[in-house]
Structures are given as C-alpha cells and as structure tokens.
From TrEMBL:
This is FAD-linked oxidase. The keyword Flavoprotein applies. It comes from Devosia geojensis. InterPro entries: FAD-bd_PCMH, FAD-bd_PCMH-like_sf, FAD-bd_PCMH_sub2, FAD-linked_Oxase-like_C, Oxid_FAD_bind_N. SUPFAM superfamilies: FAD-binding/transporter-associated domain-like (SSF56176), FAD-linked oxidases, C-terminal domain (SSF55103). One of its GO terms (molecular function) is FAD binding. GO terms for biological process: lactate catabolic process. Keywords: FAD, Flavoprotein. Residues 40-214 form the FAD-binding PCMH-type domain.
Length: 464
C-alpha cells in the first residue's frame, strides 16, 4: 500500500485520515465556478499531513518521492481556481504550522510560509511601522506561501502593482521533492519560477517581502447615479500621484444594493458605488474630486460611530473576490470573470453589450506605471456555452480574459507555457509529485492551448 508505506516513513508528524475532514481540507474556493464545481466536486486526498518544522517538510517530501505519493501544498485553501485541489489524490501538505516571523527590518520582513498575512502586519507595524505593500482581500485568512504560489495582487495593487512585478517578492526559500530534498533560496528574477506556480515546482517554506510605511487607512464608500461617472472618478483619483490610496473599486448598480448586505442601508436604489481606502491626508482631496465628478459620500470610517465600526466589515472585504463572494451568498447562480480593460472606452463597450448580464466590478490597479482597469465582473450564469460567448465577446473587443474557470496554470493565464517554471520543475520535482495536473506542459507538452478545447488531466478522469 503506497499511502501506508508513505505514512510509515513520517514518524510522529501529524497525519489526518478521517475521510470527511480530509475531504474538507482537500478543497479551496473552486466552487465559485460552476464549471470547476461540476468537474472537481469529487476530488479528495487520502491524508492530510501537517509538518511543524521545515525539517519535517523535508521528511514528508522524501517519503512522497520514495513511495510515489502525490503531494499538494496547502495554505488556508482560499484559492479560487481549484489550485489546491489534489487532482491525483495522495497527500495534502498543510503548511499553516510553519508560521514564524524570522526577521523584521524597516523595509522588509522574512517569515515562514504558513503565516496569515494579517498576522504578519500585526508584527511589522509595531516593530518598524511597516505593512505589506498589498494583500488579497482574504488578508485575515490567507497564508504568505499561498499568496505567493496562488495569488496575484489585491488591496494595494493600485500603488504597487502585482506579485509578478520584480521587487514585489524579495526572496523565496523552497524545498524540492527528491530522494534527498534540498533547500533552495531564489532571489531576483528567479522568484518568478515559483510565484503563481501553484506549488507545482517546490514547496515554499519562507519568503522575504518588502514593506511600505503603515497607515491608518480610512474606508470610504461613495455613490454615483451613473456607473461610467463612477469609473471616470476612479480613474482620475488613481492617476493622481499626490494621493496615497490603497484601494479604489467601482461596482455597478445593483451590486451594492443587492449584495453588500450590511452596507445596503447607505446605498440608494440604482446607485453605483466606489470602494476606497485612502490615507487620512488623502481624504479631503479625494472628496474634492468626488464633488467635481458629481458623486456623494455614503460612508466613511473616520466619521463612523463605534457601533458602525463594530458592525461593518472593512471595505476591502467588499472588494476583489469578496464582491463575488457577497453576490454568491445572495444568489448562488452568480459567477465571475477576471478581465483587463485597456481603457475606460473598453469598459463602456462591454457594459453596453452585456448590460445586467455582467454586473461590472472593476479594481483600479497600476501596471508598469499606468492606471489599468482590472475587471472582476459578476456573471449571471446560464450555461458554460454562454460563459464562453461572454469570454469571446471580451476578446473580440480587445479585452484580455484570465479564465477563472480552469484549474491549469496555462489555461487560467496567458494561454502559454511559462518555460522558466517548467524548467524549474524538472530540477525541483523530477518525478512530478507536486500538485499533479496543474501544469499542462509537464503532463501533455503537445496540447494545443489555442484549440478551444479545455484540457482534462488524465489522473482526474481516473479518480472520477
Ligand atoms: P491556498 O488556496 O491554500 O493555495 C493557493 C495555491 O498555492 C495552491 O495551488 C497551493 O497548492 C499553493 N500553495 C499554498 N501554500 C504553498 C506553499 N507554502 N508552497 C507552495 N505552494 C503553496 N487572490 C488575490 O490574488 N487577490 C485577491 O484580492 C483575492 N481575493 C480573494 C477573495 C476571496 C473571497 C477569495 C475566496 C479568494 C481571493 N483570492 C485573491 C484568492 C486567494 O485568497 C489568495 O490568492 C490567497 O493568497 C491564497 O492563499 P491561501 O493560503 O489560501 O492559499
């Protein structure tokens, strides 16, 4: 028995094998996608292994290599594309016990991969007055390693870009899956070999991240009768170099009214809203821009009562994929897309074609110095075929789609192989034991990514 032999080599490292608990810990937020839900609902590992130290991670990976057991690394399991689902069964590698902060400097922090992002800031803020430059809206749950391996950007990307920009991750320490697992420290451009690689080519055990000056961000929600006016305002304040902002997200009506349950009383029928996090010194100039663009303040945390501050979630928990989560809680038929609109004209065009079938949600970000409209529009889902049509409408109108209804790196990304990640997998995971089925180039190098067909991992068919 492969799993039994694997377990026998783990010593006293905690192992969970209760089928219900293992299945629960084998899941992430793949169910945001009706397409992935249909394909992956049955997926489960056989055991969850929870090492407490980096040495124990090595022991697990050596045993996995020896007994040819698939290993899927897992942080908090908040990924949205089934990245952390163990398609070939085997073992889930729970990394949340590796949560030590190793070193804090005024401009950077080094910590183990399992630390929750909010907990990291809770240590750097008092120590050096610094905080992570940006974080996913799952800040209060997600792990550092999971963010690097599975995320892309988030709250703060309006100022600092995304994880794939050089300088966003300073270094990463990984452990390889070989007969004698090695530690490797990746710096500079090399960090991109494992960033957003879904843990397919090394288990991240430590990372060093740059810090920005910490700030007591003010949450502001503003309203507009016209969504495009909300977008023009959002573009204008994002482009102002003088304004220190951490978040600007225009959401078309009826998103605020229908799905932001606890903020609903602040929003009038038919109002589109913009979610903002501003430094205290930026609030007044933001409000001047707001008046100029014809918007109104609906809520601001610096004027809120104690009771409101207790009752309302932070504004970033309405943004990014929390917008989708809030919509899904009210209407389970909703799903979403990840898009990029090169200009406001592109947003306008898509809104005019798709209307309320695609309630629009934009995240303002900065890419290579330019203000960009990163879209996370909701989709009133009817069928997979219609979803594909909506994607095609975007592409035909010059708007990129990063398909969140695919579990592979290539199909969810730019529809091409990341050669550096593939080459690194040959070194760090020569037997292909890490998170099988997520890198098409490894399993099926001849697959035509532009064929229009979705790729099916053969191991997945075998477990169905
Ligand atoms: P997991 O989901 O556990 O893992 C993510 C991937 O990384 C998996 O492939 C896993 O195998 C791999 N992995 C995990 N740990 C390691 C490790 N130590 N070494 C190697 N591989 C590893 N994402 C964003 O980028 N920005 C957002 O704003 C954002 N908002 C979200 C909002 C909601 C409501 C939800 C549900 C998701 C959101 N996400 C967002 C996606 C996700 O929350 C983040 O990417 C998060 O950082 C993932 O961290 P995690 O610890 O949950 O990782």
């Amino acid at each position: 028995m492969t799993i039994a032999a694997f377990r026998a080599d783990l010593g006293d490292i905690p192992v969970e094998d209760h089928p219900r608990i293992v299945q629960q810990r084998s899941r992430d937020h793949y169910w945001y996608s009706p397409v992935l839900k249909a394909k992956l609902d049955h997926v489960t590992a056989e055991v969850v292994v929870s090492p407490r130290t980096q040495e124990e991670v090595k022991t697990v990976l050596a045993a996995a290599y020896r007994h040819k057991v698939a290993v899927t690394p897992r942080g908090a399991g908040t990924g949205n594309y089934g990245q952390a689902l163990p398609l070939a069964g085997g073992a889930m590698l729970n990394l949340m016990n590796l949560d030590r902060v190793i070193d804090i400097k005024p401009d950077r922090v080094r910590a183990e991969a399992g630390i929750v992002l909010e907990k990291l800031d809770q240590q750097t803020r008092p120590a050096v007055g610094g905080e992570l430059r940006f974080h996913p809206s799952t800040y209060r749950m997600a792990s550092l390693g999971g963010f690097i391996a599975g995320g892309s950007g988030g709250v703060g990307s309006i100022r600092w870009g995304g994880l794939r920009n050089l300088g966003s991750i300073l270094s990463v320490k990984i452990i390889t899956c070989e007969e004698s697992p090695r530690e490797m420290e990746l710096t500079g451009e090399d960090v991109l070999k494992v960033a957003h690689a879904y843990g397919t080519n090394g288990v991240i055990v430590e990372a060093e991240m740059p810090l920005a000056p910490a700030c007591d961000w003010v949450d502001i929600m503003v309203g507009f009768d016209d969504f495009l006016a909300a977008c023009r305002f959002s573009e204008a304040i994002t482009a102002q170099d003088s304004l220190l902002l951490k978040e600007v997200a225009p959401c078309a009506a009826p998103i605020g009214q229908d799905y932001f349950n606890r903020h609903k009383p602040y929003i009038r029928d038919g109002q589109s809203v913009v979610l903002i996090m501003a430094a205290p010194v930026a609030v007044e100039p933001v409000l001047i821009h707001l008046a100029y663009h014809g918007g109104e303040v609906l809520y601001r945390s610096d004027k809120a009562s104690e009771e409101e501050l207790r009752r309302l979630p932070p504004i970033y928990e309405l943004a990014w994929n929390h917008t989708t989560l809030r919509a899904l809680k009210v209407d389970p038929s909703i799903t979403y897309l990840q898009t990029r609109y090169p200009t406001l004209k592109h947003v306008e065009k898509i809104v005019s074609i798709l209307g309320d079938e695609l309630p629009m949600h934009i995240e303002m970000t900065r890419q290579d110095g330019a203000v960009t409209f990163a879209g996370l529009p909701l989709v009133r889902y009817t069928s997979e075929a219609r979803l594909e049509e909506i994607i095609a409408i975007h592409e035909d109108n010059g708007c990129a789609v990063f398909n969140p209804h695919r579990y592979t790196l290539e199909e969810g990304g730019m529809k091409r192989t990341d050669a550096a990640q593939l080459a690194f997998k040959r070194q760090a995971d020569p037997a292909g034991m890490l998170n099988p089925g997520k890198m098409i180039a490894w399993d099926d190098p001849g697959f035509d990514l532009n064929s229009g067909r979705a790729w099916l991992f053969q191991g997945l068919a075998a477990t169905a």
